[in-house]
Amino acid sequence: MDGGGEAMQVEAAPYCCSTCDGGEVAARKLARRSKKTRSLSTSSASSSSEYRRTQSLHGPSPVTTFGPKACMLQNPHAVMHIQDPASQRLTWNKPPKSVLVIKKIRDASLLQPFKELCTFLTEAKNLIVYVEKKVLEDPAISGDENFGAITKKFCTFREDLDDISNCVDFIICLGGDGTLLYASSLFQGSVPPVMAFHLGSLGFLTPFKFDTYKSQVTQIIEGNAAIVLRSRLKVRVLKENWEKMARVDEKGIILTNGDIESSRKTVQYQVLNEVVVDRGPSSYLSNVDLFLDGHLITTVQGDGVIVSTPTGSTAYAVAAGASMIHPNVPAIMITPICPHSLSFRPIVVPAGVELKIMLSRDARNTAWVSFDGRKRQEICHGDSITITTSCFPVPSICFRDPVNDWFESLAQCLHWNVRKKQNYLSSEEDEF
Predict the structure, then answer these.
(1) Per the similarity annotation, which family is this (predicted)?
(2) Among this protein's residues, is 177 annotated catalytic?
(3) pTM to 2 decimals?
């Protein structure tokens, strides 16, 4: 029994990554393990429940050696941290002092909840409230004299003009899933924790109900909540602008009138749901080349292609026939839109790869691209779209925990696996 217990202690030794002296530790473990025999005693089984399984930096399995001699070559640049969803909890280094309130525009049903929440945050919690300037320009808000005294304490900003990334401690969204997507687009770098109230249409990403907002907001301020890190896509669009430039000599005389020069323009986006490349208004099939880490893997011929995050897998991608992926899975999903091939099915690739989409040379028409349904633009020959997983996820605050919230949304919003149950057969009916 003692040998089995000691062997279990050796198995429970902490994992050493490439930054520490893992080789010496591994050698000592192998030396001690060679002196022990395998034991399936009850003491070993009871010991296994006393510690939490180790978390590997390379994947869900803590094993870093394979057989007696094989091991994985250490590559610090390719290391991915796989976290247990239950271990992701919200904590504050300092008590939060500012909050950004995002309200769905042109929705009269949100006026009263917005006023109540802002009053509570300003007066009861003494927080600095940031509100978008166009929200306060609503006549129903600007014309309210009683609420006017509260609005004077607000800090306002304008989209694409003011940077509030270092001013906001956490975010509260009032609306639907589109409101959360909009909040994500405001932060091209690190995103503060997001608390989303279900006051919109679908509400797949908004788990909180507004009925008990005071106690829920208080709990978040105290730092007692689970979070799910929703990965985003870092998208870089490189556009070739071809222009005819006239060459002029030193005396101002025009030498040529038709030289074509190219100027490159690069724009970067952070995308929470998906990047959609489609054929736009053209009646022809879209024809784009898809590269993975520099290798051409396929040419997409059809209505287009969707590159989505696990969060976006339950949006446009699932409507196009893709599977649904939990937000904690590090992956990128590629889904064709009405492909001109019956064998072209959605695929899932690792989160660390770099995808590149370009218009094929023999494409009959241009393509169009949009990012979370916004910033739609045309893609021409020579342009490219580079996509990879962003280093800045969206920390979405959970109502209960990442697993329960996700399956609750599947059941309530998408009616996943909802069907009539079969009737129970009695013993008498079984005889016939």
Answers:
(1) Belongs to the NAD kinase family.
(2) yes
(3) 0.76
